[in-house]
Recover the amino acids of this structure.
């Protein structure tokens, strides 16, 4: 299996990164993305960008979260030379961003409508999914959120939450 990192160089145009993603996807290669978009100055987790969620939905590919613990100690932003330190890497189970995934059921169905499509999520919903995925990484790596991070506040109707809980109970009993 081959993994490729599409570097988030600020001088690159977004379209060239997206083009690189599609090119690699068509070659059945995995792509490594860093959802925070930049290195943390404090060692705490930053607000994730939602682009990785958008790409996963559009390309219909799973997200494989990878948590790394110890990278800040190896190379903090003010260092020029990395220190020789241990870095733990945790590879989590792949996550499909879809309405049938119980983790995201409430996000997909919080707004109703007969014309609502699978990939028809607004920016706040994409951001909520990005935060939920990054929260899994945060828990596994034992990190904390940076004080600048503000979790999105989605209005999920009670009816949707009840339906999600009912579906969850149904799945665990079968």
């Amino acid at each position: 299996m081959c993994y490729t990192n599409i570097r988030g160089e600020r001088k690159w145009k977004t379209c060239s990164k997206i083009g690189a993603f599609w090119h690699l996807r068509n070659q059945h290669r995995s792509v490594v993305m860093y959802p925070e978009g930049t290195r943390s100055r404090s060692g705490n987790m930053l607000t994730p960008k939602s682009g990785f969620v958008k790409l996963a939905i559009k390309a219909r590919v799973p997200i494989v979260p990878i948590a790394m613990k110890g990278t800040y100690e190896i190379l903090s932003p003010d260092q020029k030379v990395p220190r020789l330190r241990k870095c733990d890497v945790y590879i989590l189970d792949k996550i499909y961003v879809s309405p049938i995934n119980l983790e995201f059921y409430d996000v997909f169905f919080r707004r109703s409508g007969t014309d609502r499509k699978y990939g028809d999520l607004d920016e706040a919903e994409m951001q909520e999914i990005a935060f939920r995925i990054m929260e899994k990484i945060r828990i596994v790596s034992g990190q904390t959120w940076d004080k600048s991070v503000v979790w999105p506040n989605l209005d999920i109707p009670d009816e949707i939450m009840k339906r999600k809980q009912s579906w969850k109970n149904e799945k665990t009993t079968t």
User: Anything to note?
Assistant: The helical segments are 14-26, 51-59, 71-74, 105-109, 123-141, 158-173. Residues 123-141 form the longest helix (19 residues). The CA atoms of residues 47 and 149 lie 5 Å apart. The two ends are 34 Å apart (CA to CA).
